[in-house]
Structure formats: C-alpha cells, structure tokens
TrEMBL record:
Protein location: Cell projection, Microvillus membrane
Segments crossing the lipid bilayer: 78-106, 127-149, 399-425, 446-471
Gene coding for it: Prom2
Keywords on record: Glycoprotein, Membrane, Transmembrane, Transmembrane helix
Its membrane topology: Multi-pass membrane protein
Signal peptide positions on this chain: none
Keyword Glycoprotein set for record: yes
The protein, known as: PROM2 protein
Keyword Transmembrane helix recorded: yes
Length: 751
C-alpha cells in the first residue's frame, strides 16, 4: 500500500490573535545594584520582627476594631517599639547635646583657645582629621544611597499606583469581553473551513491522478505486451505467406532449370572429353558434377498453418489498444465526474459543522456568572482612587522632606570638607604652629557650622527615617513576607477572619468548594474562569471540543463513498480469439531447421561462374582454334544460365532465409508469449477495478486524516485560547503577582 503524502508546512493553520489588547502583562523583579542592600535590610527586619502573621489580632481588627488592645499591638510591634525608643532618645538627645555644646562653647570651655605647640597636639590633630574624614565618607555613602532609593521610590510609586486601577480595569474588561472573545474564537473556524473547502476542490482530480499514476506502469506494460503479440501475428502471417510463395517459386524454377542444366553438363563433358582439348582433364570432374543442389520440393509445407490463419486478424488491434489507452487515461476526468455529488455533499456538511461550532459560543456559561466579579472589580477600582491619591500626596511630602534633609546632610558634609581643607592649609602655612592664622580660623568656623547643622536637623532626619522604616518595615514583614509564603491567602480563606462585607469568595462568585488560595493556584496553572466560578451546572470544555462531535458526518460521507474507476477493457473477445487461433495454428510446429538445411545447399552443386572461368582459362591454352571457340561458347552459355536463372533462385533463397530466420526465432516462444499476454491482459483487467478502489479508499483515508488534523488543530487552539487567554482566570493570578512585585519589590524595598 502507498503511504500518505507527508504533511507540508501549509498544513499548519495560522489563527488570528483575538485578545491581545486586554491582557494583563506580567511584571517581574528587575535586578538592581542595590539588591545586596535590600537583602541586608530584610535580614535586619527578620531580626526586628520575628513574629508570624498575627491572625487573631487581624481578625479582631477587621471584625471588631474596638476590641483591639494596645498591648496586643505593642507586643506584636515590640521590635519597632525598640526602634521607636532609640529614635526618640536620639530625637531628644541631639537637641539637648547641641544646646549643651552651645552653652559650653559660649563659656569658651569647648575649644577655641590657642594651645602651646607640643608633639602630642599634632598627633591629636591628625587623628581627629582622620576620624572626621572617615565619618564624612560613611555619611556621604549613606546619603547617596538615601538619595538613590528615595528617587527610586518616587519613580516606582507613580507607575505602581497607576497600575492598580489599570490592572483592575483590565481584569474587568477581560471578564466583560469573554462573550465577544469566545465569539471571535468561534469565528476563527472560517480558517479551517476555507482550507477544507479549498482541499475539496482538488480532491476528485487528485484521486484520479493518483489512481492513474500508480496503475499506469502495469496498464501500459499490458498494452505494450498486447501490441507486441498483435505485431507478432501480423508479421508471422506475412512471413508465412512469403515462405509459401517462395518455396513454390523455387520448386517451379528448379523444374525449369534441371533440363537446361542437364544439357549443359552433357555438352561440356563431351567437349572436355575430346582428345583435342589440351589440359581439359582437370576440369572434367567439376563438369560431371554439374547438377541441381537443394531440393525445395522436400521442405515442409506451411499450407495448413496459412489455412488456420486465414482471415486473421479479424479485429483491429491498433484501435483496440488506442481505446484501452484512452479509457485508462480518462480516469482523472471520470473521478471528477463520479465524485461531484459527494464533494457537493461535503461542502454542505461543512455548513452544518459551522453551526455545531457556533454552539461552543452559544452554550458557554460565563456571561451570567461573571457579573459579581465584574461588579466587585469595578467597586474596588472606584474605592481605590481616593486612597491612591492620598498615598501619592503623602509620597510627595515624603520625597520633599527627604530631599531637603539629605541636602542639609550634604551641606554638613560640605562644611566638614571645607573646614578640614582650610584648617589643614592654614596649619601648613604658619611658621609657628601656635600662632593665629585667619584661614585656619575660617576652617574651624566651617566645622562648627557643620556641627550646628547636625545638632539642629539630624533629629528631624531620624524621625523621617523611623517613619519610613516603620511603614516600609511593616509592609515588608506583615504583607510581603506572608504574601510570598502564602500565609496571607490562608488567613483570607479561613472562615471568620474577614467580615461578610469583605468575603472575596462570595464577591468573586467562586465555587463553594473552593477558596482564594485554591482559585489562585488553579488560575496560576492555567484554569479557565468556568472552572473556578460557581455555576448552576457543570461545564466540561473538553466534552465540547471532542473532534468526533463535529467530524462524524464528514467521516461518514467519505467512508461510505464508492465508485468504479478502473473498468478498462484492454482486449475484446475477437482479439482474444485471434491470439488463441494464432497460438493453435501450428506456426511453432513447422520444421524450420529443414528449411535452414536446404538453404545451406547451393542451388547448383557446381558453381557455374567458377566452371565458366575454368573454361575461359582452358580456351587460352588451346592451339586448336575450333576447340578454343567451342570452350568460349560453353563458357558464355554457363554465364548466361547463371545470370538468367540461378541468380534469381539465389535471391529467392535469400528472401526465404529472412522469413525462416524470423519464424524460427518466434516459434519456440510463441505459445508461452501468447499465453502470458492473454493471462496478463485478463489479470490487469481484473485487478484494475480492485486496485483503483483500494487507491480510492487510501486517498480518501489520507484526505480524511489530513482534514481531521485541521479540525484537531482548530479545536486544540480553541481550548488553549479559551483557557489561557479569552476565558482564562490566569490574569487574576497575574494581577496578584503584579501587586506583590509593585508593592514589595519596587516600592517597599527602596523605601
């Protein structure tokens, strides 16, 4: 059996992306040069806040805020309380220390006096210079990190806040556009339908050409064999007729030649036996053997064979072969004609399949059950706007305060740098290190300005640091850490933790046997909305996408189709009888070897030209003119006999030899060849319809499998598109993951 043609790249369907404009793009953590710093801060937070998620405290805060005791909050926030105490001590200690320093300075007890130069004074100055330089460097690195992270928070906050309503809106659009998306997916059935209709247009001719291509070698070989046997019949009849006529002509010519030859022999022998003939005894023997050679009256007669072949061929083999060849070559056109109705039926079947595919959209259950989720998302979007605006406003205040305080720190660092530079320069220019020098005094004043600014503003900076640390740290430890380890989902799923107004499972219309964690996991793994929502009836998409539901009629029509496309008559009855008569005629029974034996014998035993040349040679040797004249006359008579009679008989013998040679070659194989030709022709006539039917079934099977692959591709694409795109709940999981990335990775980490 022949194999199906391999699938070409054109057999892969291309469908239009129908839902790209309402997808939720997945956000990911972007690697940063500050990642080591973020990790250090998270380790610090793990030490400060070692408590797990306070489920009892959160339950009480959400359901009955008045029942929450301050001691419970303080106990949970103990690490931050310690940080607050440190910040408070710093806030109080720094202004007090500054006031004490100012008072001390005003009493001229905290520096400002010239000291006698000693070696220890120089060492002390260098040590203080090194310590102040190191401290300034550490502060510079820290304030640089503060500026970078503050700017990064500002850069991430605005798009992060904007992503919240955008994500909610995209989710709502995704849910609301499910019916239109499903319909667009169903409408894409036009792609395989058009491909199948196109393939149907060339099916019948393709089947006919395939039958013709696969059977032509066998058919053409049978026709060629039949043509050879018809040629053998015609040629054999022709040579038999030549054989009979030639033998009759030779027998008649020999009957006429024999008296003349006998007379010539008598006269030549008498002449050569004459005593007056000089040196004639040497030729006498040849003259005495001058008689007929071959006797064609003894060869077998072919009259019986010719009688058996009389009237043949009664059929026109050339026309018969032409008609058989034409009938076989018309198989492609015949296939087009015979398959026209089934092609039309299959096109009608495709219209019915389109109606069945439309049922996928008509029976899709989501439009009636996604309304609660859509309303909940719209409500969340509306309610989030005021809070987001407030967050944005406070972020602006934080950024301004941070920039101002960081600028003051930079000013302090500038004072330190200028003071140290002027002081060092002034000391280097004094001849006596104990003398007063204005540049050194200016450097000292810059250092004092830096100290004053530090006492005045550092407590404000530590308050800002503590505030951002308290908010960002609680976001990291209370939300982000528990978001990553899924504890926050467990809290939401536990009955009673959330008030009825915040029941997300009810608001999103999730299945009764499901919860937010399970829905998140199912959505993350690519489940469809219908698989996580609470429906009145179960909906099995796989059942609606089973290929036999749409292809059964198509397969049935192709499977039941049958047509006889190989009825070719190669040899009609008269032609068969002609060949059988030819085989029984006895052509192969004639003794052609007897003919060949006779043809090896010359027409005349003694060569007339040779004898004539001998006589001419003797003529020249004679002294007797009379004898010479008689020898010349006999030589001329022999030449005349050779040219007038013997040569024509030799030509007949040569012609006879051609016919005998052909017939002798044909005769041994005649019976077998005719029998083989008749058997082959009958076999081909019998096998052609059977094999044509087999090829028809095979080609239709290959066509069916190819077209079913189009159905399978489409239905597989429908399932994948509905689950992963149009009606997928994966955007919900993606939105939750995006919220964690925005809040924790892009905002909380820099904060």
């Amino acid at each position: 059996s022949q194999q199906c043609h391999p699938a070409s790249p054109a057999g892969v369907l291309r469908f239009t992306d129908t839902h790209a404009e309402i997808r939720v793009p997945a956000l990911h953590r972007v690697p940063s040069s500050l990642d080591p710093l973020y990790k250090l801060v998270r380790r610090c937070l793990d030490l400060i806040q070692q408590n797990p998620l306070p489920t009892e405290l959160l339950r009480a805060a959400l359901n009955d805020p008045g029942s929450v005791r301050t001691s419970q909050v303080m106990q949970y926030e103990l690490g931050y309380v310690v940080c607050a105490v440190v910040a408070l001590l710093f806030t109080v200690a720094m202004p007090v220390a500054g006031m004490c320093f100012c008072y001390c300075r005003s009493r001229r007890r905290c520096g400002g006096r010239l000291r006698a130069h000693r070696r220890s004074l120089g060492c002390r100055r260098h040590c203080l210079l090194a310590c102040l330089s190191l401290t300034s460097l550490i502060i510079l690195i820290s304030v640089t990190c503060a500026l970078v992270t503050s700017q990064r928070v500002k850069g991430q906050m605005e798009p992060g806040l904007g992503a919240v309503p955008t994500t909610l809106r995209t989710l709502r659009q995704h849910i609301n556009n499910v019916p239109q998306g499903v319909q667009m997916v169903v409408d894409q059935f036009e792609v395989p339908r058009q491909q199948i209709i196109s393939d149907l247009g060339g099916l019948s001719r393709s089947v006919g050409v395939s039958i013709h291509t696969q059977l032509k070698a066998m058919t053409y070989a049978a026709l060629a064999d039949l043509q050879d046997r018809a040629g053998d019949l015609q040629t054999s009849l022709h040579h038999l007729q030549i054989l009979e006529r030639t033998v009759l002509a030779l027998a008649s010519a020999q009957a006429e030649l024999e008296p003349a030859l006998r007379e010539r022999r008598r006269r030549v022998v008498e002449l050569l036996d004459d005593p007056r003939c000089t040196s004639c005894a040497s030729v006498l023997g040849r003259a005495q053997s001058l008689e007929l050679g071959a006797d064609y009256s003894k060869v077998p007669s072919v009259e019986k064979v010719l009688k058996a072949l009389s009237g043949l061929p009664r059929s026109d083999f050339a026309e018969m072969i032409r008609q058989g060849n034409g009938t076989f070559n018309s198989i492609p056109e015949l296939a087009v004609e015979r398959m026209a109705q089934v092609i039309q039926d299959l096109r009608g079947e495709m219209a019915q399949v389109s109606e069945k595919v439309q049922s996928i959209a008509d029976s899709f259950p989501l439009p009636d059950y996604t309304r609660p989720a859509s309303e909940a998302l719209a409500k969340a979007e509306d309610r989030s706007q005021p809070y987001l605006r407030e967050v944005h406003r406070f972020e602006q205040y934080r950024w301004i305060a941070g920039m101002v305080l960081c600028s003051i720190i930079l000013l302090i660092l500038a004072c330190n740098a200028v003071g140290m530079a002027l002081g060092a320069y002034g000391l280097s220019k004094r001849e006596d290190p104990s003398d007063y020098e204005c540049r050194g005094e200016a450097g000292a004043k810059f250092l004092l300005v830096g100290v004053g600014l530090a006492f005045l503003f550092s407590w404000l900076l530590i308050l800002l640091v503590f505030a951002t640390f308290l908010v960002g740290g609680n976001i990291q430890t209370l939300i982000c850490r528990n978001w990553v380890n899924q504890e926050i989902y467990k809290f939401i799923d536990t009955p009673g933790n959330l008030p009825p107004s915040m029941n997300l499972s009810h608001q999103l219309n999730l299945r009764r046997d499901s919860n937010l964690s399970a829905a998140y996991r199912e959505c993350k793994s690519g489940a469809g909305l219908w698989e996580v929502l609470q429906l009145d009836r179960s909906y099995d998409l796989d059942e609606h996408l089973k290929s036999p539901k749409y292809t059964a009629g198509f397969q049935k029509r192709l499977g039941e189709f049958s047509a006889r496309l190989g009825d070719v008559r190669l040899l009609r009855g008269e032609g068969r009888q002609d060949l059988e008569t030819f085989a029984r005629s006895g052509v192969d029974e004639v003794d052609y070897e007897r003919y060949q034996q006779e043809m090896k014998i010359p027409v005349v035993q003694t060569s007339l030209p040779g004898l004539a040349r001998n006589l001419e040679g003797l003529q020249k040797m004679q002294r007797n003119n009379t004898m010479a004249g008689r020898l010349a006359a006999e030589a001329r008579a022999l030449w005349q006999l050779q040219n007038s009679t013997v040569q024509s008989q030799e030509a007949l013998v040569a012609r006879l030899g051609e016919s005998v040679q052909f017939l002798s070659r044909l005769a041994p194989h005649l019976q077998e060849r005719v029998r083989t030709t008749l058997a082959t022709t009958a076999s081909v006539e019998t096998r052609l319809p059977v094999q044509a039917q087999q090829i028809l079934r095979q080609e239709l099977g290959c066509f069916t499998r190819r077209e079913l692959r189009y159905f399978t591709q489409y239905l597989s694409w429908v399932g994948q598109t509905l689950r992963e795109d149009v009606a997928s709940c994966q955007p919900l999981a993606t939105a939750l993951d995006n919220g964690r990335v925005i809040l924790c990775d892009r905002i909380a980490d820099p904060w």
